[in-house]
Amino acid sequence: MSTIExxxxxxxxxxxxxxxxYMLVNKxxxxxxxxxxxxxxxxxxxxxxxxxxxxKLILPHRIDAYQRLVLFLERISPNxxxxxxxxHHQTAKQLQQDLLSTIRSEYEHNIAQQVFVSPQGWKMxxxxxxxxxxxxxxxxxxxxxxxxxxxxxxxxxxxxxxxxKLPSEITTEFLIEELQKLF
Length: 183
What we know:
Layout: H1 3-25, H2 52-76, H3 78-85, H4 92-110, H5 119-141, H6 149-161, H7 167-180
């Protein structure tokens, strides 16, 4: 992995971590605790609301989930993905399969994070993943069958340039706003 790729991965993570630390340091003492959550199962006290201590225990996991999902979205953004997975000796078909396999693997690695984000946030994450897969498949369908990885990469860059904001960027902004509402 080159220094530029490492920097490209580290900067978004450090930015989000800095934002979270800033929000935690500047959080007001009168933080409003969300409405009690109840779980409906057959165990005793299953309808007991979350206590202040429970919220304190869950909050770090929620913050971690938002961080991981933002990193996931950054890692599957088409430009970032191509920069990480491109090699000169691949065919377009090989690169396409590698990109799609990486997206699915990254998604499966982060699927449990849905427990800690809102249903709308998780839906946006899933939709972003699917839209990025569509961009890659569309790019592959628009080049020659014997195309090279360079041809596919160029087509992906061309298609993503048509977006004002990529689906992954829109979802990242939503997740950051949602996280900020926790404080």
